[in-house]
Design brief:
heterodimer; A: alpha/beta; Nucleotidyltransferase, domain 5; 2 domains; about 20% strand; B: 2 domains; four-stranded parallel β-sheet; 15 helices; about 10% strand
Chain lengths: ~300, ~375
Amino acid sequence: MADTAGEKKEYWRWQESCWIDESKDWRAAKIVTAGIDVGSVSSQAVVCVDGELYGFNSMRTGNNSPDSARNAIQGVLDKSGMKLEDIKYVVGTGYGRVNVPFAHKAITEIACHARGANYMGGNAVRTILDMGGQDCKAIHCDEKGKVTNFLMNDKCAAGTGRGMEVISDLMQIPIAELGQRSFDVDEEPNAVSSVCVVFAKSEALGLLKAGYTKNKVIAAYCQAMAERVVSLLERIGVEKEFFITGGIAKNPGVVKRIEKILGIQAVQTKIDSQIAGALGAALFGYTLMQKQGASAKAA
Amino acid sequence: MSGLFDQFKEWYEKRHDYARAWKGRTGGQVVATMCTYTPEEVLIAAGMLPVRVLGAHEPQNVTEPHIFGMFCPFCRDSLAQGLLGRFDYCEGVTLTQSCIQYRQAFNSWRMHVPTVKWDYYLPMPNEVQSRFARVMHYAEVKKFREFMEGVIGRKIPDADLKRSIEVLNENRRLLRELFEFRKETNPRVTGVEALYASLTAQFVDKEEHNRELQRVLAEVAKRPNDREEGIRFMTIGSENDDIAFMAMVESVGSTIVIDDQCSGTRYFWNEARVQDDPIATIADRYCERPACPTKDYPAHTRFDHVLKLAKDYNARAAIFLQQKFCDPHEGDYPDLKRHLEDNGIPTLFLEFDITNPLGPFRIRVEAFLETLREEELF
């Protein structure tokens, strides 16, 4: 995996994915809606048919929000044979939510992640930790997935997905392997003292020089990230059930450490945790369409 | 905005030009004032223009040798303006005691801003609830008057003090009249407009400001109430002149209808109770005004005052605009938050710095709005 001359490996590059539920026929659906989550690091498009997950596309955000939104939805369209006009309602969310050219409405990712988590983890979910590319959010919601309280990290992107990408590149280990490798250590190290991406990078290099294995450095960084997000969670309190969304939810090295500190297990799901925001947006689109239909009938 | 508040906006944006022009026109001295507890009546009676020091909300690198980085951004930004020469037209600088960080900023200002010719620190008691506070403050305002007489080289007659009390009281009355329009459904005065009016009162010649307020008040009543108010917000905190932030909040489906901030109501809320002795009138006025957290103990009088404002102006929710590292406000925050929430006013906490990240703030404000709106999404 070492870099060779003229070839720069991108260890941080996580797997983009596109999936549709072949068991569903979108042409038979009454209402097709989409949610587009243009985040700072990744963009997702989710398509729902009659309020059920049908397909999604998850990819890296480019330098242009409208293009990222178009590229994201195009993946699902290509795979399903759908056209954009077949989607009756589109909700934009994420940092680029107001720059989704074909969206009918923009809703914050805080509301969308709560709604998505409610779908993915069930209506007993009350606390959501969204660990995104450049921020993290602690969210409380009710049984419908409506946000009742929330907190975001302040200004600095420390302890977020971008930090993990930097460590991945520094260690020259693919990002998807970091979590598992963090458990392969002779003893659990102390957390790195800073989760600031710049300082943590220097500290990680120092630890390597001091004789730490790469796995142990990764473990120290995962622990630091877990401690940071737990401090955010504890500011609003953790109520059961607890659910984690966002890209870092796929990193067991961070998730298990969060669970250990909190003494609580996160609800498991088979759905890709990274699509929670876009899924919530698509579900909101479905509700809004239903309400529009109901009001049109009433009129 | 229909142009009605354009004069206030222009004064705010060109506040240094205004002060220089005033000085050229009148030949009077301009005084940089720090903290709204400054008894401006004395300065105005001495023929001076009090100009409150505000920040510029720009990155700066000049204050580190003087005050700590963990002093509040308003202190650091205020000192930076002095060190950068933005107030080079001010002969004097004065501070009335409020918080210790502000006092350090003032000390650096008076020592290191080369254009300052005189300075005065007015040691107002922080425990204004003490039975000795008014006696002490009376003596301090009297000493301040004597000092100012030394600066201008003549006596300040009682009649001049009484006149300045009248002018300031009129300013307070007119601002409250303007703020009354914010009680309406779909208020005719937005939070941004109200902020322009209350901020400019702190550095524009008061008589000129009064004339502009009278003009605006005569016109504003003719405005239609056709702007949808959305969610009605109150803002709470120390100083706030972040117009871009206020405009952003009011652009995403809300209206800021009232505040408890020293850039707003705390500056002008109570008139001075006119007594025979003008010094007593002035001293009592500042002891009686809505309290800043530095002067609100042992009883927390501001908690019920803030709640009453929220209720009177029908605020649906409140946003705390917390200057980072502002200990007095941060100390009040947990109890004041609980007090408001126990009385049906949900709150959002935002931490302000010299420059603020509008994007992340917008997400928080919009998400807060989504929690407050009717359940159209469910």
